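User: I'm putting together a teaching handout on how multi-component assemblies are represented. Below are the sequence lines for each component of a complex, exactly as they appear in our records. Could you produce the 3D structure of the whole assembly as structure tokens, so the students can see both representations side by side? Please keep the chain order the same as the input.
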Amino acid sequence: MTPFERVDLNKADLEQADPSNADLARAVHGKADLNKTPPAGKALAVTARNVVKAFGERKVLDGLSLDIAPGEFVALLGRSGCGKTTLLRALVGIDAITSGTLSMPPVRAAVFQEPRLMLWKRAWRNVALGVRKPDVQQLALKALAEVGLAERAHAWPATLSGGEAQRVALARALVREPQLLLLDEPFAALDALTRIRMHQLILTLWQAHLPAVLLVTHDVDEALLLADRILVMADGKVAAEISNAGARPRHIDDPQLQEKRRQLLALLGVEEKPTYAAYVAQQGAQLDALHAAQLEARRDAEAQLQTETQPENHSETQRIRVAA
Amino acid sequence: MSKSLSLPLDAGVAEKATPKAGRVRIAQRLSGLAGLSRIASPLVLLLLWELASRLGWLPTRIIAAPSAIVGTFAEMVWSGELPSHMLVSLARIAKGLSISIFTGTALALIAGLSRRGEIIVDSPLQMLRTLPFLALVPLFILWFGIGETPKIALIAFGTVFPIYLNLYSGIRSIDVKLIEAGISLGLTRAELIVHVILPGALPSFLVGLRYSLGISWLSLVAVEQINATAGLGYLVNSARDFMRTDIIVVCLLVYSLLGLFTDFLVRTIERHALAWRPSFLRS
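Assistant: Of course. Below is the structure of the complete assembly, with chains in the same order as your input.
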């Protein structure tokens, strides 16, 4: 099995097999499914059909199709170089696609891995940048208050910590009231504790404003904790899809999430790391086998020695006996 | 508990602090003395110069006595002669520099923001840059006559290159990610220039402006020799005709003071306009 082989399971079959796992197994539909016209009446936030983006000869996006419903939180996983960032840039509007159709809402906002703040503008001016509404300053201050940075509104970006700068970037995205929020590994450069707090913040903000969210990430756990649906990208297409509509707040040690985690890691072609206990057990078994083999070898050698020296031994005992 | 513990600690700190503070004070006094001794040597030279002038070893034709120069300076300020000539010179510089800042910025934007613009603008400017612009005086006189135009044009020509070159490289070195962020925020091209590109290139621009100001004083000396009837250069020239070395030295002093002043001006601009820079924030 190649790492990204599409799991051609029928959704109905899986639900029948184990109804409790319905959402877990509601996996994986291929291009055939998506090539149908989207369901009428319900406008989608993002519709991509056979999107191709080529840089010279190389097709980074190669017939990608994708739907995101309004208010849906979708995570996009994939190994580096699979085209995640290219798709995101196309959705942001930085790059044009080579062919195919891509429709997205007019009001979009993006948060990148780096905060990308204009160092020469104070925090609130960064938030207000490009907002064409009356009373921009009030809106910017409100957005900063929402990310918990009201008192840092007049700070220069260079004086903000990494987490604070990223929250300003988040406020800058939110103040636009986007219908589609694009997040390109926004937590990758933060320390573990800040990342946990940012996860909670992003969920709170998402539930308050309900934009459609596309989160590009390397972190399987992050995707499992945050998203309603997880897409796995490979070779410029959506190779697999896992539904993840469990209730929030979620804990990564939830067995259902662990099961999905294993699935995702397999789809990403990553062997799960053995736990320490498993490692010890494996090493122990190896040592036991080694000892057993050594013991056996020694026994064999002794036995051989005994058979070779038996007559001599025998005479010696005899001699001792004689002496006695 | 905290009281009994903190007392000896505080005492220890106090004990340590006193000799340290004393040492700092001594060091300050020493550096003050060093500052004085630095002034001492020029003072002695000045005194020797004054002495030589008084004794007739240095005739006024060669150079005037320091006291005479100070007297002339005071007299020229008092009579309003020096300020009025200075104003004329400053106005020429202001006009020339505003032309060069405007054209330099426009050219840097054209070359910095598009490949085609770079091809059209950059190579001719790089060629013109190597011309010693003071050699253009005869040509400028033929083109613009001997009025104000050639003077201002020559100042503008001489100062446009540092502004163009620095701003151009500043624009080119702006992080593409910031421009992409600007695009993702829905900025128009004009807004990108105003909010992202020009502020981002401002530090480089100010470096260019400093060079340009230096060049503007240099070109002023040259252009004010073209049939001028006012200005510092005119003062120097007419003083030469009357062998007034005191006036010449006064003008030289004014040049150097104005150079210092403009440098101070740019630094003040930097402190305000670049207040966001991490290096300024730390200080």
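A couple of points students might notice: The CA atoms of residues 77 and 259 of chain B lie 18 Å apart. The two ends of chain B are 39 Å apart (CA to CA).
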